[in-house]
Design goal:
six-stranded antiparallel sheet; Tumour Suppressor Smad4; 282 residues; kinase; alpha+beta; Rossmann fold; 9 helices; 28% helix
């Protein structure tokens, strides 16, 4: 196969070594490997005729690569080699962290998983997004701590908020009409913040956005949400709002950060939408 291997040129050395190891394995198995950098990769220009694009990184790398394409339809089938912090997409799609096993996976060419592109203010997101205290915690995550302790840096950031807990009223408008909340999660997959689950019905192939809105986001409400996620999200609290929609607008009483796939990408007011554009993962 002709494979475009796309990654961040400024990767931390250990992660870069894993990417280079994967490149060597793919080449050793007879594949043509084209190296490209995520912030400038244009599939139609840099990898015409490629059979596969391997995005080596986390959810943010995948979001960046897809969002930078002048023509999303020009992307070949995609695979995610997980070298990021959370790796929700790779977890959702079952990609291995072991380079040998990953190479075998992409060679098997399973039936593609097609996912429609969801957007925040016109920019893509792939796995999950939120507005409220969760996004506030993402906004103060230490990048140095992320490199040291991985996803637990997000837990540390959330704990740091407990002294000055942010609460903001939000006005939501979906396909079902208006609604008030203090925290909202927009989900395209089952996993959230790692192996945990906020909505068992959410899936990448879904034909709508799955939304979880909390009427209140006090400390005890977030602790209840954490317990819900850790125990497999069998049944949401009776006063929580869980619904599907094609579009969702969020207006807050004060400017509030918006996170997508583990990075702050916008601030309120913001519009979420599910587009007709799609990508394929193999």
């Amino acid at each position: 196969m002709k494979i475009a291997l796309v990654y961040n040129e400024r990767l931390q050395p250990k992660r870069m070594a894993r990417v280079q190891r994967l490149a060597a394995i793919l080449q050793g198995r007879g594949h043509e490997v084209i190296h490209a950098f995520g912030d400038s990769f244009d599939a139609s220009r840099d990898a015409p005729g490629a059979d596969l694009a391997v995005l080596a990184g986390g959810d943010g790398t995948a979001r960046l690569v897809i969002g930078n394409q002048p023509d999303i339809a020009a992307l070949p089938p995609l695979a995610i080699y997980p070298t990021g912090t959370i790796n929700l997409l790779a977890r959702e799609l079952g990609y291995s962290r072991d380079p040998e096993e990953f190479a075998r996976q992409v060679e098997r060419r399973r039936d593609p998983v097609t996912t429609r592109i969801a957007t925040i203010g016109g920019a893509p997101f792939l796995a999950c997004a939120s507005v409220g205290v969760d996004a506030h915690s993402v906004s103060i995550v230490s990048e140095k701590l992320k490199l040291r302790i991985g996803r637990f840096a997000y837990v540390a950031a959330l704990l740091a908020l407990f002294r000055n807990w942010p609460r903001t009223r939000m006005q939501l408008v979906s396909d079902h009409g208006p609604l008030e909340a203090e925290a909202v999660f927009v989900l395209r997959g089952r996993h959230y913040a790692g192996r945990w689950t906020l909505d068992r019905a959410a899936q990448l192939q879904g034909e709508s956005l799955r939304v979880l809105a909390l009427p209140d986001a006090r400390r005890r409400d977030l602790l209840a949400l954490v317990a819900y996620a850790l125990t497999g999200s069998r049944k949401p609290k009776g006063h929580w709002h869980v619904f599907e929609t094609q579009r969702l607008s969020v207006h807050c009483d004060a400017e509030t950060p918006v996170q997508a796939d583990g990075d702050v990408v916008d601030s309120s007011p913001v519009e979420f939408a599910l587009t007709q554009q799609s990508v394929r993962f193999v």
